[in-house]
Amino acid sequence: MQGVAVPVSLVAGNSIIHRLNPIAKLAWVVVVLVIAFMTRNPLFLLALAVVGLVLVTAAGIWRSFSRVMLILLPIGTSLIVFQAVAPAFPRPWTPITTFGPFTIYQEGIYSGLSLLSRAVSMTVFALVMIMTTHPSDLFTSLKRLRVPYVLNFMLAMTLQLIPVLQREIGVVMSAQKSRGMKSTGFGAVLPSFVPVFAGAIERVQQLSISLESRAFGSSGIKTSYRQVSVRPFDWLIGAMAVAFLIACIAIFLTNNFLDMSRTLVIPAELSLILVGLSALGFVGFVGSAIWLIVRA
Amino acid sequence: MTATATGPSGGPTIPRADAVFTGGPAMPRQGAVEVEHLTHVYPSGKVLALEDVSVSIGHGEIVGVVGQNGSGKTTFSKHLNGLLKPTSGRVVVNGIDTAGKRVQELAAHVGYVFQNPNHQLFATTVQADLAFGPQNLGLPEDEVQARVERAIEFFGLQHVRELHPYRISFPMRKLVGIAGIYTMQPAIFVLDEPTTGQDHVTTQVINTLIRRLRDEGATVVCVSHDMPLLADVVDRLLVMWNAHLIADASPREVFSNTEVMARTKLEPPQVTSISMQLGRRPALSVDDLATDLESNLTSVGVA
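Predict the joint structure of the above. Result:
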């Protein structure tokens, strides 16, 4: 029963991050997204992620946040391992050392770290926004920015449906366990996800009927019972996001996008430790997945 | 138990309930379910959902669990098959302490029928879905088939056995949901709101099925708001109020206890209210009231 669902939804709180206007937070998410795709410099991207972690601390959402970030573990470890031996990078590659039968390349380590730090930095900022913003507040704020009502509604509903589906998965897993289902891995997919998706489709059908019956799509000014104020501080944070983006673009354009793929020398020992630990984590994850399948 | 814990609805700390109302003299019971000083506090928000609940349910008994929303009914019932573990206290089902057992291990002993059948149906045909439980128990295929056939006959599912569960009506799905547990032949059935959203005919079918389950030797724990059903079918009612068990007595005794009814804001079945207003013993069904009135008329020489 416990620990089935990962809570990717609002974590109630009253921190400074919680109180910040949703648009200011969204601005930072978009800025980080743009920056993360403009540079491949892992140090810069990791620094961004660290800033994000400071925000996580300020928001007091570490518990829920870390559970979600665990999902990145197999992705991150596989990125390092596969990129190290087969870089997604133009040749020539510079060999650093060997790891069993495999050669580890400098560009591979660089590329793996780039992809990982890019994913982490974007995810951290996105989670800070999702976990500290009430979906209705985001809805109301986007409406002020004249985002089309239907698009706005779709975004808000998607965010609101995540916790609903998580609860549903928990209930369905309990129901199937009560029927003796021993699988917890892939063996549990069919008995658990058919009811969840069938229920989701049914819910969406009912929702669409309910919306139409309450005049969804009619013209006129839409109001909201939740009022979101924009304080000078919110403007400041939003402006800082824009300023940061402009500054980063300027730095990138004048410094070859901080590309260090050919200049950053990664010591062989450090590479081995990094790849070894990643391989261990990845094999551990794959092994436990296989064990769960076999046990099912 | 926990001084800082709040009530189920997040309200202030709940005062201890008075002694449990047990009606007449207690009958010696051979425990299918033994609950001793069960307390449960949900970790998120430290919500006290059950406090010091003790109850014994005998083999072959039909027991109803009633109370307002948030009183602890579902939390109590989820302890019976190990979906929840006691914060303190002990739950023993069919001689097995649930504390160290997984839900899957207890499934052979306690069958839990969820309120919404859609939460458990997934196979492409009704009969394949019925086979899911016994297959999980590791039974040989011929035994699985025998149980599926028995369940189809018991629940009258012959005409839908080849159909997809999502293509049959909701009341029929409810029956398939119960049948999916029946094929596992547990000693104890826990039914969560079995008649919610059901028409009168299906409610009567479920009423009959509960009796037949008992006739086959099963113990049935029925969590419900359906007072006429409970009045008609259960031997005992457990009344929950603000995380406490405040009454454990026959339906007749519970319905006639004005203090319990007032505190829990439960309404007895209409026929029970009418019989009490007539100054008769609390009737549990129209037939019961008719019989009582008939005997009264006979005794005064009118009939």
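The first strand of chain A starts at residue 95 and ends at 99.
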